[in-house]
């Protein structure tokens, strides 16, 4: 009888421990996945910042372009140019400069003419 009780207790403990280990494994897998998601999100943000920086340098290097009121936003290879320029020809000039940057898939050119008196 005592051996049966010991066997039952041992089996119960083994079952309890295996459940805890399975839970710990699932929690560990979940944490690992969250960590990987976080890393990939931060890597994507870094790539977006790097692309914006490359476009900014291209705009700075473009002769005849007043880039002082141009903001550059990048997301997954799509670059948005937002702001104002002093004359109409600079809108096209900025868009063309951005399109020539490697890894730019498309340009959303939202530049407008500066209002007079500003």
Query: Helix/strand-derived class?
Result: alpha+beta
Residues in helices, as a percent range: 55-70%
Number of domains: 1
Count of helical regions: 2
Question: What is the level-2 CATH architecture name?
Answer: 2-Layer Sandwich
Low-confidence stretches: none
The CATH top-level class label: Alpha Beta
The quaternary structure here is single chain
Shape: elongated
Number of DSSP strands? Answer: 3
Topology as H/E string?
HEEHE
Strand order of the largest sheet: 1-2-3
Distance between the termini: 96 Å
Query: What is the typical, i.e. mean, pLDDT?
Result: 81
CATH topology call: Histidine-containing Protein, Chain: A
Question: Approximately what portion of the residues adopt beta-strand conformation?
Answer: 15-25%
Rg computed from alpha carbons, rounded to a whole number of angstroms: 29 Å
Helices and strands in order, then pairings?
Layout: H1 2-61, E1 70-75, E2 78-85, H2 89-99, E3 106-113
Parallel strand pairs: 2-3
Antiparallel strand pairs: 1-2
Describe the fold and architecture.
The protein is α+β, with helices and mostly antiparallel strands. The chain has a single domain, classed as 2-Layer Sandwich (Histidine-containing Protein, Chain: A), CATH 3.30.1340.30. The protein is 60% helix and 19% strand. The chain is built from 2 helices and 3 strands, in the order αββαβ. The chain has helices at residues 2-61, 89-99; strands at 70-75, 78-85, 106-113. A 3-stranded mixed beta sheet has the order 1-2-3. Helix 2 links the parallel strand 2 (78-85) and strand 3. The longest helix has 60 residues, at 2-61. It is elongated. The mean pLDDT is 81.
């Amino acid at each position: 009888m005592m051996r049966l009780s010991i066997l039952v207790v041992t089996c119960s403990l083994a079952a309890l421990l295996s459940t805890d280990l399975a839970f710990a494994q699932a929690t560990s897998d979940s944490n690992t996945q969250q960590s990987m998601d976080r890393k990939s999100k931060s890597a994507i943000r870094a790539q977006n910042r790097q692309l914006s920086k490359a476009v900014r340098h291209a705009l700075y290097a473009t002769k005849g372009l007043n880039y002082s009121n141009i903001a550059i936003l990048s997301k997954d290879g799509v670059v948005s140019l937002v702001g104002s320029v002093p004359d109409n020809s600079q809108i096209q000039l900025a868009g063309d400069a951005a399109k020539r940057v490697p890894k730019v898939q498309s340009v959303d050119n939202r530049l407008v003419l500066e209002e007079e008196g500003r």
